[in-house]
Structures are given as structure tokens and as C-alpha cells.
Amino acid sequence: MFDKKLLESSELYDKRYRNFSTLIILPLFILLVGGVIFTFFAHKELTVISTGSIEPTKIVAKIQSTNANPIIENNLKEGKVVKENSLLLKYNGTPEQTQLSELLTQKKQVLDKKAQLDLLQKSLTNEKNEFPTTDSFGYEKSFENYESQVKSLEATIQKSNQAVEDQNKSTESQKQAIQNQVATLQQAIQNYSEIENAVSSGGGVSQDNPYLSQYNSYQAQQATLEADLKNQKNPDETAKQATKSQEESLKSQFLSGLASSKDSLKSQIQSFNVQESSLTGSNAYDNSQSSQILTLKTRHFQLQIKK
């Protein structure tokens, strides 16, 4: 049976309402209810991050005098009451005088510039510095630059023409050497032809022929064959025919050797002719110096006029 006296004990209620679940759930519930109520009454702020520039709503007027002359009298004071036709500012000179002075200054500058341009043109024409003193427009410096460019141009053209001349001399020297060699070979062919003519038709051979020894050797062999035939006692027709056949064979071999030598020399001449034809002269001389200098003069003068 349940003892009703326990209901009157505080220990029963402490154990019932002071457990772990009661201590956690109740504060969380109160916090949740408070958060919901806060959302209805709290003020929300929205922040947007961006870039921009701050500009005035209207342009601030810049107040300044339209007269550039210096002020010699200033009657302006802060808070001072002024009357009609009162003198407030007094400038040094009138605008007309100032403008006239500026125009006269510009005119003088233009005249000075024209005079210096005339000196530049005269210097370019005479190819020498005609400036008595250093000018303030830089025209004398321009003429000095022109002289420097002319000297550089002349040196370049001279170097180019010298290279052309050296190349042409070298080519001519090689051609002359080839021509001399060809002439030597042609003379050798003529010498062989002289011996060939002497063997074929019985002509003579000059004593200064460099191949005379070959001809003498051939004649010696022919003489040996004839001597052998004469030394035979009563040679029959067969011996004579044999000797004649040997002489013809010797003659044919000798003429064949001469023809072969001549063909070899002709082949060499042809090769030299090909070499000579392949030797071409260098480019023509550069004769544009005068025209280039004239172009430099015109360009320098026009550049100074445009300034």
C-alpha cells in the first residue's frame, strides 16, 4: 500500500522535479520562446558592400581675374562697403598695351627665327657653318647634325665603293690568270699540231718546240726499224712488209698519243673557260652620294621649318 504520508514530504518533490531532463529542457524552452518574441520586435539592419565615388552635385565656380597684369593698387577689403564707380583694383598697364607688347615680342621672335632659318639655309647651301653666334632655336645644332650625317654617309659609300673596287680587281686578276693559262695550253696544242703535221706530211719541227724530244724519239725508232731492214742480206718481200707494218704501227701509236694529249689540253681549256664565265664583276659603284646629301639637306631644312 502507498503511504500517503510521503506526499507531505519535500524529499519526494525534490527527486521528482530536480532531475537532469527538467534542468535542461526548461531553460531551452524559455530561450526558444524568448527568441521567437525577439524576432517580432527586433530591428533588422542590412549592410551592402560596394565601390563608388563621391562627387559634388554642382561644379564649384573658380573665380579669378581675366587680366594677367600685375596689380599695383588693391582697394578690396573684407566687409568694406563699396559705391558705384569706386576704384577696386588697378593693374599695371591696359589690356591693349599688354596685348601689343606680346604681339611685338612674338613678331621679334618670328623675325629672329626667320633670320636663323636663312643662316641655316645658307649653311646647307655652302656646306659650311655660317652662324656667327650660337642661336637660341637650335638651328646651328641641326646643321652640325647634318654635317655628322654627311660624313657618316661619305664614309659608308667610300667603304662600299672600295669593297667593289677590290672585288673587281680580284675578279680581273683571276680572269687574267685563267686567260694566261688558256694561252699556254693553246700554244701547247699548236706545238703538238706542228709535230703531228711533221709526222703526217713530213714537215719540219722548230727547234724551240718543247716537245721536240718526243719527235726525235719517234724518228729514232723509225730509223732503227729502217736500219734493221737494211742490215738484212737480201730481205724478202715478207721482211719488207713486216718492217713497213711496224713503221705504220709506230706512226699510228705516236699520232694517237699526240691526239690524246691535244684532247686533254682542249678539255682543260674548256674547263678554264667555264671558270672564267663564272667570274662576274661585283656590283656597280655607289654613285648616289650627291642625291642622298641633297635629300638630307631638304629633310633637315623642312624639319626646322615645321617646328
Automatic annotation (TrEMBL):
Residues 110-198 form a coiled coil. GO terms for cellular component: plasma membrane. The chain crosses the membrane at residues 20-41. Keywords: Coiled coil, Membrane, Transmembrane, Transmembrane helix. It is found in: Membrane. Signal peptide: none annotated. Residues 99-301 form the LcnD-like long helical bundle domain. Its main location: membrane. The keyword Transmembrane helix applies. It is a single-pass membrane protein. It comes from the Bacteria. The keyword Membrane applies. InterPro entries: HB_LcnD (IPR058794), MesE/LcnD (IPR005696), MFP (IPR050739). Belongs to the membrane fusion protein (MFP) (TC 8.A.1) family. PANTHER family: MEMBRANE FUSION SUBUNIT OF EMRAB-TOLC MULTIDRUG EFFLUX PUMP, TRANSPORT PROTEIN COMB. This is Competence-stimulating peptide ABC transporter permease protein ComB.
